[in-house]
Amino acid sequence: MRLPMLKIDIPRDVMQQQFDKLSNKRGDDECWIWGVTGRRDYEYGSFQYGGKTYRAHRISWALHFGEIGHKLVICHKCDVKGCVNPKHLFMGSQGDNMRDKWAKGRQGQPRAEEAK
Ligand SMILES: [Zn+2]
After folding, report:
1. Model's pTM, two decimal places?
2. Ligand 1 centre and the CA of 21: distance in Å?
3. Given this structure, which CATH class describes domain 22-106?
């Protein structure tokens, strides 16, 4: 299975503006849940621009750390898909992502935040 790699083609100021508006920034160690109405924490946040839909955590990465390499995926340390806190994200290969999921799965409880 191959995920389509979307090139992020959004002006930086637009990214920043939307991010500031929708990221619901909190403390550095807390999850920032992307704030589109009706979305849930366990779903990826989405960011729309120019007729394309991007995943919000990828936008967060691009904004804070730069371009995402081809074939690389942005993963969550916190396992909260809707989270866009750049400190909770890491870049890895699709294989890393699978190993990470597998490792976390073996530990049982996901570290999802329960407080709303
Ligand atoms: Zn998080």
Report:
1. 0.76
2. 17
3. alpha beta
